[in-house]
Amino acid sequence: MNRRIFLKRAAAASVASGPVAAQTAGTPLSANEKIGVGIIGCGGMGRMDLTDFQRQPDVEIRAVCDVFQPAAEQARKMTSNRADIYSDFRRVLDRKDIDAVVVATPDHWHALMMILACSAGKDVYVEKPVSHNVREGRLMVEAARRTNRVVQVGIQQRSGTHFQRAVQAVRDGRIGKVHFAQCWNHNHSPDPKGMGFPADGEPPPDLDWDMWLGPAPKVPYNSARRNFRVFWDYAGGELTNWCVHLLDVVHWALNLDAPDTVVSSGGKWYFEDCRECADTQEVVWEYPGDVLVRYSTLAHNSFGPNGHPGNKSFGSYGIMLQGTQGTLFIDRAGYEIVPQMAMHSEKVSAGSREAYDDLVGFGNYFSSETMAERGATSMQHQPHVRNFLDCVKTRQRPIGDIEIGHKSTAPCLIGNIALRTGKKLKWDGKMEMFTNSPEANRMLSRTYRAPWQLPGMEQ
Known about the structure:
The chain is 32% helix and 19% strand. By secondary structure, it is α/β, with parallel strands linked by helices.
């Protein structure tokens, strides 16, 4: 790395480290003005986003876009056929009546779509992980700041009231000083044959395979590749899928920014199919302040679909913060604090009124109705969408701002680099580069396939 690039990144890191919530962008919309939204990527997550955006009284879904025609048509039907259909996301960005877009595509498309949307004057709700690689994520932050756009990342637990309460409890010292946190995602996959080894072939006539690949390398169509999360060209396995959510809560509760080191072990040990990413993996990060964070993923959970080796009441995914005065366990259903040497514990269900009534400043989005009664997709997702829309109007930074999402994504991305290099890597969080491995640094970015370009990726 030459001195010019080093100084440029240092300046960017200095600016990015400033206060977030108080900064604003652009001109606020009027209170009664409808927000025109375009959905880019109409798979399962895109349709979930569409559902909660459409529920908001100040939103009109004006466009849906997907390279797979049946997915786009299904999304359009959800709008009572009012939205227009596109297969090229750039046509959505061209529309003057689109104020904000949702990017719910495979991971390898997130950066380019978000940056082009910001340049087109759109605010963006982008799903996690924010990027395919670390350099992309930093360019996304810079683009949002340069264009003064509101960018919310789909780290919706930030908008969950019981998550907010639990984080505040940790910050208030309820469990003492925390030196160890662990996260896990243990799936129950009974069939090790998985996707098998399907042969290459011709893409379906209603799928634009070249556009699906986009900036990723050109390869023949293979049905297995549409399960994008398990191929390195498009994603990073469960580490960049689930761990971003889990690690984000750890960062939030413990005020962590970036790790000092990372090491990982594991591999494709369970599935006997064509996937590339690890199905069994453990990652350990060392953070400043003597904090050790551990994440593990298993393709086959031997403890059953709802079991965990430490406590059978804990689910097959979750977060545990272990402090000098107690332990906190949390997932999307609720949280539990178990004090050290105490005769009681505190349990709060995400659906109970107790979780909301004594919160000040976070907003009581839900009371004790069931999810079916209130029609929400989840207890965190709908308020997260609402927070984004409110910020579109006020121009304040959202609760899951792009800088926050990038800093929760980057440790997961470098965790996979540690796995693939087989090294314990030292990380400079300000410069966002490794200090002990040129090989690992080469994996912090990628070359885009022509004609797609992302300015800055060559640096």
